[in-house]
Amino acid sequence: MADAPTQRSILVDALQAALTMTEPGLTQLPYRWIDDDWKQDPLSWTRQGQDAKHSPTVEGTSASTGGDTRTPRNDQPTYQSEADREAALATSFEQQCMVCIGLPEPDEN
Amino acid sequence: MSNTTETPGTIGEVLAGLSALPAPDYIAETKKLYGGLGYPDYAWAERSETPAFVPVDKPLSECTVMLIGSGGIYVRGQVALHTKDDTSIRLIPAETPSADLRINHFAYDWTDASQDPNCVFPLDRLRDLAEDGTIAAVAPQAVGFMGGIYSTRRLMAETAEHILAQVKAQEPDLVLLVPV
Questions:
Q1: Which of B18, B102, B135 sits opposite A80 (nearest CB)?
Q2: B7 and A36: CB-CB below 8 Å?
Q3: B35 interfaces chain A, CB cutoff of 8 Å
Q4: Which of A42, A67, B2, B165 could form a disulfide with B24 if both were Cys (CB 3.0 to 4.6 A apart)?
Q5: Nearest-CA neighbor of B99 among B75, B64, B126?
Q6: Which residues of chain B neighbour A55 with C-beta distances below 8 Å?
């Protein structure tokens, strides 16, 4: 799936653009999607859950409300997998403090 | 143009060439979306001042580049971000293998990005550029955070301040911000 050469090309062009721009603004890079039709309705995925191959799931919430298929927001850490949750629990908060800025300290209980 | 209808999700689906259609007008589209759901117009933040612009006075090969991404990236072993106005950030060591990068986000389909995080957080590619001398180096700590923070006030007072402190501490020549 990964297309490292294209990723690299876009990245270099973007970085070079930052060096050649002389004022704030947008620079159009010469890339396009194979199929541009999605641009005609770019938020269709919010109404058509079948478009999303993998909608994120949030524990303890339902996936959709009415015609809006966006995932409900949740103020608990949402892990990519249960194994990741366990890996985080195995890491001390002192170590987490070095990498997670803005997190409240965990409750004593 | 292919005749596939798959929603674009991987950077591998892009081709060099001029765009056939202009970039979407996301502000108008979002207003239409919320209006259709019965919500009032989304209150987009508007900045009255032009962002400060600082020209880069050295070639790319001499630049240290810092990566910042709003795609909900964290590292295996870190506390994951949450999806309800999480204003915290995650520091991601530049040497982190992409296999250890994790993603969760409430507002985009991250299936492809979970298989190749470079779609939304091109850390491998930046390391490639540093290795072959295209850039001087990757800043020691990249930053991941959760986009889609609804509170502009908290975004500016908390998330932006956390990020700014990191940028000041690491003193990169360029910052690559990858929004999602």
A1: B102
A2: no
A3: no
A4: A42
A5: B75
A6: 109
Tell me which residue of A8, A103, A14, A94 sits closest to B74, measured CA to CA.
Answer: A103
A33: which strand partners? B14
| Contact partners, residue B116, CB within 8 Å, separation at least 6 | A1, A2, B10, B11, B98
CA distance B92 to chain A (A): 7
A100 vs A11, which has greater pLDDT? A11
Q: What ipTM was assigned to the predicted interfaces of this complex?
A: 0.83
Q: Is the pTM of this model over 0.90?
A: no
- In chain B, which residues have their Cβ closer than 8 Å to the Cβ of A33? 8, 13-15
| Tokens matching residue B156 | 């500016």
- Comparing alpha-carbon positions, the chain B residue that sits nearest to A18 is B56
Cβ neighbourhood burial of A42 (10 Å; 0-12, 13-18, 19+): middle
Tell me the CA end-to-end span of chain A in Å, nearest whole number: 44
B5 touches A21 (CB < 8 A): no
Q: What are phi and psi of B121, to 5 degrees?
A: -150, 80
Angle at B41 between CA B160 and CA A56, to 5 degrees: 60
Asked if B173 has any chain A CB less than 8 Å from its own CB, the reply is: no
Distance from CA of A39 to the nearest CA of B (A): 6
- Smallest CA–CA separation between B166 and chain A, in Å? 10
Q: Where are the alpha helices (DSSP H) in chain B?
A: 26-36, 111-115, 123-131, 152-154, 160-170
The domains of chain B are located at 60-178
Q: Which residue has the tokens 């950077």?
A: B11
Q: What number of residues does chain A have?
A: 109
Q: Which of A76, B162, A79, A96 is nearest to A105 (CA)?
A: A96
pLDDT digits (tens, 9 = 90+) for B48-106: 888 888 889 999 999 999 999 999 999 999 999 988 889 999 999 999 999 999 998 88
B33's tokens: 């979306």
